[in-house]
Amino acid sequence: MGNWLVTLLLPLAAWSGWWVAMRKEVRDLRKSKSREAYFEGLSFLLNDQTGQAIDVFLSMAEIDQQTFDNQLTLGTLFRKRGELDRALHLHQQLLDYPNATPLQRQSVAYELAEDCIQAGMYEQAKHLLESLRDEHFRLKDVLNTLYRLYERTADWQGAIKARELWQNSGFGDCRQQIAHYYCEIAQRALAQNETQAAHAAVVSALQIDARCGRAYLMRAQLAEQQGEYVSAIHSYQSIAEQALDFLPEILPFLMKAYQHIDREDEYLAWLEQKEAEQPFVRLTLALVHILEKRAPDAALQLLEKRLQTSANPLLLADYLRLHQSDDIRALYQTLGNVLTPKTVYQCNQCGFRQQRVIWHCPACHAWSSFRPVLELKLEQR
């Protein structure tokens, strides 16, 4: 009886061992193929061969339907290829996958938010990113994506919160951007005739960034609306202290404020002091154009003095224009073409150019990056 049982069990044991070995071999083969496919897909991806990479990762998904990370990568590749419907569908399926770990679900939610942004589904993207922010998942990446989304949708309160959290998390100083967000809120309030709300937003902007020229400009404009011209003058002069490049832009407004209180002589004295402290070309020309109406000789002397240290063609052109000598005036007339200044505004981050002052670069999204550039233009007289 014992021999019969042993005879029966030996083949069964041998078959069981073979079956276990075969299963292990199949698993090892699958792992080996998966690794090979992964590196093949990665190679395609590094060489910008997105189509081939998608095919490889798709074959991996067919080998092992439970390969969660491969599916996640595949969805990201769909988005980069512009196949947003497929990316959204795949990432949504993964988000609903019941056996996903919390970390996997967060990773999928982040990729799904990126899909939604590209598809213009901004509210859905906000909801996903705000949840990830509250969970502190990849906080720096989430906040970086979130604040840009708030800017795109003009959600300035949301942008303020995102940048404050960025700052408080030690990722960098954002006071300049936050001040501009408050200025945007003030601009919106002014458009709705909500003067008090606009004033409060401007005050908040200056509390955040005491060097915000835009906030000083808005404060001056609000003061003028209320007939508070002395306050407006102080705000305009603050711009000169914080952003001297823009001083020529605000001089006409500053002069009008002085005229309202009959203090034009004080304006001229202040302008002469500023030009003496910082004699750059645009400021000198602005002062000359005022002096030539009051004291032409003083205007000419100023140009002569500046030309001794700066052989600028714009200063020279004004000097020739104002000179009383017949020979020099004749020379000016016979030039035919004279140099005239033309001001353009250029982003100091990316070089984007505009014909007027703007505060937010549409190309690189930098704030307060535009600076006036004085160009020389030949104009037929």
From TrEMBL:
It comes from Dichelobacter nodosus (strain VCS1703A). The keyword Nucleotide-binding does not apply. Residues 22-381 are cytoplasmic. Belongs to the LapB family. GO terms for cellular component: cytoplasmic side of plasma membrane. Its main location: membrane. Transmembrane segments: none annotated. This is Lipopolysaccharide assembly protein B. It is found in: Cell inner membrane. It is a single-pass membrane protein. GO terms for biological process: lipopolysaccharide metabolic process; regulation of lipid biosynthetic process. One of its GO terms (molecular function) is iron ion binding. Residues 345-372 form the LapB rubredoxin metal binding domain. Modulates cellular lipopolysaccharide (LPS) levels by regulating LpxC, which is involved in lipid A biosynthesis. May act by modulating the proteolytic activity of FtsH towards LpxC. May also coordinate assembly of proteins involved in LPS synthesis at the plasma membrane. Fe cation binds at C347, C350, C361, C364. Keywords: Cell inner membrane, Cell membrane, Iron, Membrane, Metal-binding, Repeat, TPR repeat, Transmembrane, Transmembrane helix.
